[in-house]
Design goal:
single chain; 372 residues; alpha/beta; Molybdenum Cofactor Biosythetic Enzyme, Chain A; Alpha-Beta Plaits; Rossmann fold; 3 domains; 6-stranded mixed sheet; 3-stranded antiparallel sheet; 15 strands; elongated
Amino acid sequence: MNKITCHIITIGDEILYGHILDTNSKWLSQKIIDLGITVSKKTSIGDNNSDINYNIKKSISNYNLTIITGGLGPTNDDITKNCLNNIFDGDLVYDKKTFNHIKKIFKERNFNFTQKNKDQALVPNNCKVLFNQFGTAPGMAFEKNKNILISLPGVPFEMKSLFENGCINLIKKKFTLPFIYHRMIKTVGIGESWLSDKISNWENNLDKDLSLAYLPSIGRVKLRLTGKGDDISKLKVKVKKEEKLNRDRSEEIISFLEIEDIKDTPVGKLPYGLQKKVELGRALATDSSIILLDEPMAGMNVEEKRDMCRFILKVNDELGTTMVLIEHDMGVVMDISDRVVVLDYGKVIGDGTPDEIMANKKVIDAYLGVEH
């Protein structure tokens, strides 16, 4: 299936000057991608005749779909419609439905129906008119060399209504669109670049119909696995197969830590001891040869401490991972450590086996609170 490409052009000096935020192209991108169309380019240009003409002519020659927003109002700087009329070699004519709609709006509001308002109903005679039920500027659709250009008002709620109620069906009739299937994999506690390095082999060997997107935010990275093709059943099988390859490692860790019964529970709703165990699982997921735990026993009751000690020893014994603890619970330290380093005000005062540390006078003095 051939890739269908789209270029989104937003028009308006107010966008370039930073007076308003361009939310139209963001919203359109999401909708267009959901249709299975590739958004190849986004451009913002001012209300300038030469810029509008240049970008539109270039776009309709290079992209299957061009969507324009803005420049359709009644003021002198709204020149998009005239540019389109010249580009597509049309003649401006009044659209009766739009004219009556605008006239009704002005009558209901007791406003003067001026010539500029009437002229908003003018459209090129060779376009498909997209009726705007929420405003006075109609949308327009043109076709050239099997490519489509759609022009929409810049007012966001008008643009959204026109796109959803008129443009989607038009696009579906014009193009043979692929099926799209998404699955989301959520990761936490690992940066985007580090995550990319860890899964590079898997990512590089994805099926040709699949793609991976990284969606980072504070403290987490979502992986969006997308399948695109002409058979939705096959896509679902492919996507779920790849998702399972990554989830298998998580399931192994969940089983190792014996937390199968809580795997579908949000971490924030778990008791504190189990939250700590989940943190240990996240550390294991990095496949590191050394894991540093900072105060792993803090805030735990006796039973939770015993459980955490058991799994720290299990990780060391069965996985061969070196476990380094910064811990003030001396009972825990002495029970599970092979080697202990003791610091007092940042200075090493002891380094040896638990038995050696317990016999070390400096350590005894420091931890009995002997005056310095």
